[in-house]
Amino acid sequence: MSYSYYTFGHAHDPRAVEIVDLPDRVEEYFYLSDGILCASYLPPTTELSLYENAGDMFTDFIDNPDKVLYVSQRVQDVLKERGLVGAAVELLPFVLLDKRGRRVRESYAIANPLVCVSCLDFERSKYRRTASDPNELAEVKLLYVREDSIPDDAQLFRLAELTDMVVLRSDLLEAFQKAGLTGLAVHPAGKTIPG
């Protein structure tokens, strides 16, 4: 079966809530982009707050500048139904506080993809290397993947060449859309990534 691949993006909906205080609340937050288990760095008592200057509309995927997947219980349920929670995705529950500092009733978690797949098509993709290490990528502006390098069961994974880039497969995207999940913004592989 042939699939399409997508990367996560920013929803840019001024009506929606956002979370921006992860770096202030979790000292080792940068591990969340490495594809490693992070429960020891982010206990379920961790409190994250809604950004005061954002909107008030709750979405299933909460936008943020840290490239983290903040997901509602409905997203968690889809991930569980598709057999992704455990070996492929770590769910990290946290306490979400509203703009007044009160606990939000809805249960949110960070979905931390653990699978890293080396599949970047270096010949067709557009990317920039870091100045400090020419073997390390700083960003990918146009993503092409080598589909023959992607395992059959990889529905949600990190690009091994740039682990803060999360890739999802078209059948998982369809499951999210079928469930009516909100706040999801994706960019198809083969198209320039805005920003």
From TrEMBL:
InterPro entries per the UniProt record, alphabetical: Imm11
Domain Immunity MXAN-0049 protein: 44-189
UniProt name for this protein: Immunity MXAN-0049 protein domain-containing protein
Taxonomic path: Bacteria, Pseudomonadati, Myxococcota, Myxococcia, Myxococcales
